[in-house]
Amino acid sequence: MQSHPGLAPVMLQAGLAVLGLCICAASGAQTVAARDQAPQPATAMVEDPCPPALAVPQAIANLGDAALKPGKPGTDISEIFKNPEVQAYVKAQQERALGDWPNLCRYRAANAALAHSPKAVFIGDSITENWVRGDPALFDQNVLGRGISGQTSPQILLRFFQDVIDLKPQIVHIMAGTNDVAGNTGPTTEQGFKNNIVAMVELARAHHILVVLAAIPPAIRFPWKPALRPASTITALNQWLRSYALQSGSRFVDYHSVLADSQGGFIEALSNDGVHPNRDGYAVMRTLVLPSIGQ
Questions:
Q1: For residues 211 and 247, is the Cβ–Cβ distance under 8 A?
Q2: Within this chain, do residues 204 and 280 fall inside the same structural domain, yes or no?
Q3: Which residues have CB under 8 Å from 209's CB, separation 6+?
Q4: End-to-end alpha-carbon separation of the chain, Å?
Q5: CB of 295 within 8 A of CB of 139?
Q6: Does 29 reside within a domain?
Q7: What is the DSSP code (8-state) at residue 251?
Q8: pLDDT, tens digit (0-9, with 9 covering 90-100), for 130-150
């Protein structure tokens, strides 16, 4: 065969390219083999899915204290949320919510640490959550607070097994509805709210837990949804809660009647923002709830 000097470099390059492909293929095969030999989890279900709790910025902690101290807070809430540290915290919370919408991680460790079953569990939203700080003498190892700020009834329902039934209390105090009316997790219906309440009550009764249904506290407007006028809807839902409590053999605590003014709003001296009770508001609520939980 006649030699072609110009062909040699081309053949050399082709040979090197083939050699390179072989080396890469061998290396890739080794990598795949090593990966296949490494222990792999069978599923995405793990022993503890919860990351460490986020540190609460001092500005938000101060806001919580201001909400409980009777009298109008001197701090503009909107200014607090311009704080970069607060913005970062809110963003981190929102990102976590994508993987834990009902916030099952919030009380997981506290539930696991319980030494014995409590007498009563209070489950709900921020009004329940703030109650623990606003009236700490009411809450101890026998009366537990399991409220989470901003939650709606479907989120509370999803937490009901973990944060109530698994703790085996004698009594559960359910307070929900403020954030459903506000649409915190999107538009809903009155029937959707009622279905979630019925589901919680029936779950509790199936596990021999006495139910205390709480009236939705008054509000004539929501600071975070100022265009809404919720007073009449809250009144109607409370009428249904009272009727359903009687029908289901539950106890009903009418906080609304002692906290509301003549317009259906929160009595000014008992709430700093027209939605959440301050310490004086919680003191009024305590007198109503104690007989219902046998305290």
A1: no
A2: yes
A3: 164, 165, 169, 170, 171, 172
A4: 107
A5: no
A6: no
A7: E
A8: 999 999 999 988 999 999 999
